[in-house]
Design a protein that fits this description.
The chain has 347 residues and is an alpha/beta fold. Helices cover 20% and strands 24% of the residues. It has 7 helices and 21 strands. The strands form 6 sheets. Strands 1, 2, 3, 4, 5, 6 and 21 form a 7-stranded mixed beta sheet that branches. Strands 7-18-8-9-14 form a 5-stranded parallel beta sheet, with helices on one face. Strand 5 (108-113) and strand 6 (118-126) form a beta hairpin. Helix 1 (13-24) packs across helix 7 (332-343). The longest helix is centred in the first third of the chain and has 13 residues, at 75-87. Bound molecules: flavin-adenine dinucleotide. Flavin-adenine dinucleotide binds at residues 9-15, 32-35, 40-42, 45, 49, 51-53, 58, 98-99, 127-129, 131-132, 174, 284, 287, 317, 327-329. Flavin-adenine dinucleotide binds next to helix 1.
């Protein structure tokens, strides 16, 4: 097979946005994805998940999400949308191809997959998200905890936890939503280092994402500001009301786990059945290890999504890659266009 002008690793929303940007530059890319089919990681997110942004601010370039633009779509609608989006692209998409290893040379990239195939490309975009690398923070006693520990990546629905005492760790959108949902069947505490930073999704009658886009607040120069600030949790009142009811409640982060117990900062000790880590994800880029693209923590060395150490290599979908919206449905299109232009991809 001749070298492709562009190989995209990962066929979720970030990979599809990169493929759309490639098509606009006259290039038909090759997409290699480990999954069985389209949708990226969306089919694996928890069952009750609805988007934090309305449909009109949750679309990839060139195709609107169907239905009323101001509603907050359900997870399954995003899966259907990404399926239709992939079908409408002019791209060679190959599923069930996990990229194991990439090597970089003067002629471009050689890519080895789990199927034993080898593909070559002039440029390469890594768009593999972080779902396969859930972040487990260092918590004293976590490894020896005798209860159940799981990451939100493994959480689907509340029923299996009925009657339990549960601590959810992490004050972002997932932690808050899962804690509130579990409180319907269990007694739940959300443990966070700082109070939850609530965000009203409507300001002066407009969705907050309208303001982000209109004011340019999520644009590149403010990246560091967003990165340092707390994660904003969207709430139309439902979650604040749930916490006001006392179940779930919120407490400062516990100091350690011991056996089956949690030790709280005020010295109190309590038996807990399950600890759920709502502590986010890290970029899953191990396949780039041999290229020199990663730092010792396996994080990509890049500026705005363009590798600073490997010519021809770019990224789409990294958190805060260029701004606040970089790792979201509405943000990946803008970043993809920028990265492909900077890589010089053209037909
Ligand atoms: P993924 O969806 O993870 O797709 C990566 C793809 O790469 C997968 O198909 C995978 O099979 C493939 N892959 C991985 N490794 C390899 C490999 N080695 N070789 C080949 N293929 C590989 N964003 C919003 O805009 N609105 C929201 O409301 C929203 N809610 C979210 C809720 C949760 C719980 C989470 C976790 C995220 C949410 N996001 C939201 C953020 C973001 O939009 C999603 O995480 C989205 O799935 C990221 O898309 P992606 O394409 O970058 O990565």
């Amino acid at each position: 097979m001749p070298a492709s002008p562009l190989i995209i690793v990962g066929g979720g929303q970030s990979g599809l946005a990169a493929a759309h940007a490639a098509a606009q530059r006259g290039v038909r890319p090759l997409i290699l994805d480990a999954a069985e089919g389209p949708g990226g990681s969306w089919p694996h997110y928890y069952d009750s998940l609805t988007l934090f942004s309305p449909a009109r601010f949750s679309a990839l370039p060139g195709r609107a999400l169907p239905g009323a633009p101001d509603r907050y779509p359900h997870r399954d609608e995003v899966v259907d949308y990404l399926r239709a989006y992939a079908a409408g692209l002019d791209a060679d998409i190959r599923y069930r191809r996990r990229v194991r290893c990439v090597t970089a040379g003067s002629a471009g990239f050689a890519v080895a997959t789990s199927t034993g195939e080898r593909f070559t490309g002039t440029a390469l975009v890594a768009a593999t998200g972080g779902f396969s690398r859930p972040h487990r923070p260092e918590i004293p006693g976590l490894d020896a905890f005798t209860g159940t520990v799981l990451h939100t990546a493994d959480y689907r629905a509340p029923e299996p936890f009925a009657g339990q005492r549960i601590v959810v760790v992490g004050g972002g959108n997932s932690g808050v939503q899962i804690a509130a949902e579990l409180a319907g069947v269990a007694r739940v505490t959300l443990a966070t280092r700082t109070p939850v930073a609530w965000q009203n999704p409507r300001i002066l009658g407009r969705d907050v994402h309208w303001w982000f886009v209109r004011t340019g607040l999520d644009a590149a120069p403010l990246r560091r500001l967003w990165q340092k600030g707390p994660t904003l949790v969207n709430d139309r009142g439902r979650y604040r009301a749930a916490f006001a009811s006392g179940n779930p409640d919120r407490r400062g982060m516990f100091t350690r786990l011991e056996g089956e117990k949690v030790q709280w900062a005020d010295g109190g000790v309590e038996r807990v059945d399950t600890v759920i880590l709502a502590t986010g994800y890290r970029p899953a880029l191990d396949y780039l290890e041999d290229t020199g693209a990663l730092d010792p923590n396996r994080a990509p060395l890049h500026r705005g999504g363009v590798s600073t150490t490997v010519p021809g290599l770019g990224y789409v979908g990294l958190e805060f890659q260029r701004g606040f919206a970089s790792a979201t449905l509405r943000g990946v299109g803008r970043d993809a266009r920028y990265v492909l232009r900077r890589l010089g991809v053209r037909g």
